[in-house]
Amino acid sequence: MMESAGASKRYGRIQALDRVSLRVPAGRVTGLLGPNGAGKSTLLRLALGLDRPDAGWVRIAGRAFTEQPAPARVAGALLDGVGAHPAQSGLAYLRTLALAGRIPAERVAALLEEVGLAQAARRSVGGYSLGMRQRLGIAAALLGRPRLLILDEPTNGLDPEGIAWVHRLLREHTAAGGTAVLSSHHLAEAEASVDHVVLIKDGRVLLDGPKDELAREHGVGSLSELYLAAAAGSGAQR
Known about the structure:
With 238 residues, the protein is an alpha/beta fold. It has 2 domains: 2-61 and 147-237, P-loop containing nucleotide triphosphate hydrolases (Rossmann fold); 85-146, no CATH class. The chain has helices at 40-47, 71-74, 90-100, 106-114, 130-142, 160-175, 187-190, 211-218, 223-237; strands at residues 2-11, 14-24, 29-33, 55-60, 75-78, 148-152, 179-184, 196-201, 204-210. It has a 6-stranded mixed beta sheet with strand order 5-6-7-3-8-9, sandwiched between helices. It has a 3-stranded antiparallel beta sheet with strand order 2-1-4. The radius of gyration is 18 Å and the shape is globular.
């Protein structure tokens, strides 16, 4: 569903991505995992056409996302927070997105109920807590019933119940035939959701493969241990 080949991106003196090649398998939850500043968000921005790579490419469903005839139905993303104006209500924000994406208006009410914002739908987004804004952003990502769901640090500001809800949402999405990418620096928290992992550090992919297979290969029992082992090996090679 998503793949890259030699994708590189520099911002001034910072090499955010360095020849990144990977494939996100369809029908699974892929964890794009690594510390803050590893290049995760940059890769997702390239995938969604929000930035252009300096070299290489990133594609979704076989083509550039900006070339998709119905992009909202191909991929939905929570990236860089919610784009709603603070004075806008959650309901108005989703209705605007639905209109732009030619999505039936009744989808909005169903989503607000699904993400737990039905009671706050007519409140201004500026008065939402961080957790509520995250839920609104996830609703926006789900609006077009996308085949690929991309969530960048979706559990920020969520309580334990909300975190469990995100993990359940990812599993339900793939169980229904979709594909998901979870980008996070919380490796222990991501453990509950992902079954394919891409570990990234300093703009380079350290490991890419099924979580259980990589854990067995490296003789570790958790994603945190797997990352430390891969990072140590990467450091030794330089």
